[in-house]
Amino acid sequence: MVFVVILLGAPGAGKGTQAERLAQRSSLPHVSTGDLFRANLSEGTELGKTAKTYMEAGNLVPDEIVLGMLFDRVAQPDCHEGYLLDGFPRTLPQAEAFDSKLDAGTNLVVFNLAVSDATIVKRAAGRLLCKACGNIQHAEFSPPKKDGVCDRCGGELHQRADDRPEVVRERLSVYHAETAPLVRHYENKGVLVSIDGERAPDEVFQDLDSRLEEHCQEGGPEARV
């Protein structure tokens, strides 16, 4: 039986951070659509070349290409027993297409990280990225020991343009229009588990890990670790 975990949540809800930790804890491969795009583009695959033509024209990459990249990846041997998805699906048509391609009997669980817009804007406004090593710190939650200087490598910290409040609010608007409907979709399928994402990252992870443990015992893989 294939075990598939999907993490939903608004941009800035903490999906990436929690996905990495949950993948390590569960031994499931962490499959990120962002990573898939970068890999296909850098390796010059046929799917990557096709996606590049759309991106260079300023157009969205069609769902069939995104799905092609995804299913190429999850067909690899390390995903035969299951995988964890971060950043996919983003729209209802993507979710429906993904559902149609899943093997019968796939054990699917969808975690939704519920975080208010106000909290997400606040988190993004304080996020600091190191130009040298990519380390992420936060002005309030993990402030640098020295203003503007990365604790890890001493590089310069800066705020990304897409972390400005007005940009974050626009991204949230798109999320509510295109991605939020997935919550109802998976709720109707009986596979949705809502997680309070307003808490500290460690508390959120402990809840996710506990819920995943419960799900595994009810029908997931015999061993997660």
CATH superfamily of the domain at 3-28 and 81-206: P-loop containing nucleotide triphosphate hydrolases
Rg over C-alpha atoms, rounded to the nearest angstrom: 18 Å
Strand content: 15-25%
Low-confidence stretches: 220-225
Number of DSSP strand runs: 8
- Can you identify the CATH class of the domain at 3-28 and 81-206? Alpha Beta
According to CATH, the fold-level topology of the domain at 3-28 and 81-206 is Rossmann fold
**C-alpha termini separation:** 17 Å
**Biggest sheet: strands, sense, closure?**
5 strands, parallel
How helix-rich are the residues, as a percent range?
A: 40-55%
- CATH architecture assignment name of the domain at 3-28 and 81-206: 3-Layer(aba) Sandwich
Shape: globular
Structural class: alpha/beta
Description:
With 225 residues, the chain is of the alpha/beta class. It has nine helices and eight strands. It has helices at 15-26, 33-43, 46-56, 63-74, 92-101, 117-125, 165-178, 181-188, 201-217; strands at 3-9, 30-32, 82-86, 107-114, 127-130, 136-138, 157-158, 192-196.
Detail the topology: elements first, then pairings.
Elements: E1 3-9, H1 15-26, E2 30-32, H2 33-43, H3 46-56, H4 63-74, E3 82-86, H5 92-101, E4 107-114, H6 117-125, E5 127-130, E6 136-138, E7 157-158, H7 165-178, H8 181-188, E8 192-196, H9 201-217
Parallel strand pairs: 1-3, 1-4, 2-3, 4-8
Antiparallel strand pairs: 5-6, 5-7
Helix pairs in contact: 1-9, 2-3, 2-4, 3-4, 6-7
